[in-house]
Fold Transcriptional regulator MraZ.
Amino acid sequence: MVKYFLFLKKILMNSLFGTYECKVDAKGRLPLPAGVKKQLAEVMEDGFVLKRAIFQQCLEIHPIAEFRAKMAKINKLNRFIRKNDEFIRRFTAGVREVEVDANSRLQLSKDLIGFAKIDKDVVLVLNIDVIEVWDKEEYEKVVSADFESFADLAEEVMGNQNDEFELS
């Protein structure tokens, strides 16, 4: 649990960021680029959880301690409420614990590769506390979407933020 809090502290101070292209080999092994390894150095040996994304057709890689914290919240849901039971089932569908091998690769399972339509070329997107794994063509479709739609979304999500700036 201490490592989790150290990870959270690191994320709050230095959120994961960056976009990296790489290739998955025929056996489903995903090499982690140097920039990714550097950002994950403190949690690399603990392992990760690989799962389906909720809102997109991509995969997510979570540091295991961070995923366990999410599961602790989910475990509080009442399974006798149908929506909760369905959510838990879908949230955990295809979840795999994975470790980085000696060659700095993660093994992607065939069912998750199929879910995300991953062929060979992939894009890793580091987003604050999670790494998204996208098929390159699918990623390009999503990020190339209508610019005006994104501008409207940015305004809606971030436009009401009252940032306080320190004057030095």
